[in-house]
Amino acid sequence: MQLSLSYHDWLSILPVLILSSWGMLLLLVDLFVSKQRSVALGWLSMVGLAGALAAEAGLWGNRWIGFGGMVVLDSLSTFIGIVGLLAALFTVWVSLNYIRDRGIERGEYYALLLFSTSGILLMAQATNLVIVFLGLELLSIPLYVLAGFARPQQDSEEAALKYFLLGAFATGFLVYGIALVYGATGTTDLVGVAKAAQTGRNATLLLMGAGLLIVGLGFKVAAVPFHMWTPDVYEGSPTPVTGFMSVGAKAAGFAALLRVFLFGLEAVQVDWIPVLAILSALTMVVGNVVALVQTNLKRMLAYSSIAHAGYILMGVAAGPKSGGLEAVMFYLLTYVFTNIGAFAVLAVFARREGEDQTFHQYTGVGRKHPWLAAAMALFMFSLIGMPPTGGFWGKYYLFLAAVNGGLGWLALVGLLTSVISAFFYLRVIVDMTMREPERQSPDRIYPALVTTLAVTALGTVALGVWPGPWLQLAQAGLKWFGS
Asked: What distance in Å separates the CA atoms of residue 21 and residue 23, rounded to the nearest whole number?
């Protein structure tokens, strides 16, 4: 079969092309830039990310099928792409001084970050299970390296090894699931899978494949019981990488879940909705309950990330007809500002000899840096789901979608676990503002970090005070499902 490529084929993946090309350019520039001036590569990477973000914004509202139906450009892919690019931009800002303070200045850091971001964009556009797999690997392989970027520190090397081994194991489930879906339907194209699923032929084989796809993608979004890698990897990875991982990888995983299950496997939703609902409940309960006993703030945020995967799964289980799709997308946008901001506060305390992320490190920080404690308090309130933050509306729309979708019991679980989460989130605020300092606070906070905290804090408030325009943008993704 001869494949004829048109102008629209290449234009549909323009942001991916920009990021991948810019990443290769950074590797070449790194050959001529001294280690002491590697911060220039960070600023150069932001140019590439800004270019890709401009391309995504320029392509908003278009819908093109590319490369023989392998990828699609639509409002859903553009929205998720913007989420991933914002996460990458904030991560670069946080990283500019962080990697120098930690003594891990290596030029390939920013190139790997761009390659991983291009994987997010590709997964968001995938309408073929083969492209889902390729996008997942393009996202994951650079992240395996970035997780161990703080070598030769043992915890960073351990994080990379655990992430790689368990990630490869989960990928095996994903590939086997794709093989079973292909065996049941005769195609890996999601349009073909949707048509074949409607016939009811090979239903058992198809459901087995769907189950394995849940395992593979459940690992990427850190859903229980596929979450065991998350605390150790988050704790050992460089803090900016952890923040990117908690947002970018989650956005990509949920983009694939939306494509595969809400479209490709819509005909058998009566079988997979109960599974996702149970996983959502387990993820919310385990994430929030285990976070209660953590003494390390980074591990606490890791279990928090697990819990929030459960909240987002609630929207996937509710489905697009109940408002689940736009609720998921709005929540992911809120999560970018909230979680990246929280990890940016952690990055302030980085030292060349390592990071002490125990709660004792943060006691009394508000005495010397009240604005830093105020920013962290805002992010914690948003993670709880308190007004007037974006997290409040994010949870409200998810709970509403669950109720409208006949999953009122799941919304109740989400509400109760949100109450539980208030304890460990408020603990951070109390330690920073109402306790005597036990450790020395940072003397200098770099302008790039201040900028990141300011932008993420403003974004968190803006999404809480004016949720309407952002929700309308998320609702634009519904156009894809009606085609």
From this structure: 5
Query: How far apart (Å, rounded) are the C-alpha atoms in residues 65 and 68?
Result: 7
Secondary structure percentages of the chain, helix, strand, coil, to 5: 80, 5, 20
Name the β-bridge partners of 356. Answer: none
pLDDT, tens digit (0-9, with 9 covering 90-100), for 412-453: 999 999 999 999 999 989 888 887 766 666 666 778 888 999
Domain ranges of the chain: 11-481
DSSP-derived secondary structure for 255-291: HHHHHIIIIITGGGHHHHHHHHHHHHHHHHHHHHHHH
Candidate ranges 1-15, 146-160, 212-226, 429-443; pick with highest mean pLDDT: 212-226
Q: Which tens digits make up the pLDDT trace of 329-345?
A: 999 999 999 999 999 99
Tokens 């989400």: give the residue.
Answer: 414
pLDDT at 36: 59
Most trustworthy range by pLDDT among 232-236, 282-286, 347-351: 282-286
User: Of all helices (H) and strands (E), which one includes residue 32?
Assistant: none
What average pLDDT does range 448-471 have in this prediction? 90
Residue type, 63: R
Give the whole-number percent of the chain exceeding pLDDT 90: 57
DSSP codes, 43-100 = HHHHHHHHHHHHHHHHHTT--EEETTTTEEESHHHHHHHHHHHHHHHHHHHHHHHHHH
Give, in order, the Cα–Cα distances in Å from 122 to each of 106, 174, 395, 419. Answer: 26, 17, 27, 36
Name residue 85's amino acid: L
* Angle (CA) 466 388 419, round 5°: 135
Q: Looking at the DSSP assignment, which residues form a beta bridge with residue 65?
A: 72
Distances in whole angstroms, Cα of residue 387 to Cα of each of 37, 331, 379, 395, 463 = 43, 14, 11, 11, 10
444-448 long-range contacts, Cβ below 8 Å, gap at least 24? 445/348, 445/369, 445/372, 446/96, 446/97, 448/93, 448/94, 448/96, 448/97
- β-pairing, 64-66 with 71-73? antiparallel
Q: How many C-beta neighbours within 10 Å does residue 125 have? A: 28
Amino acid found at 465: V
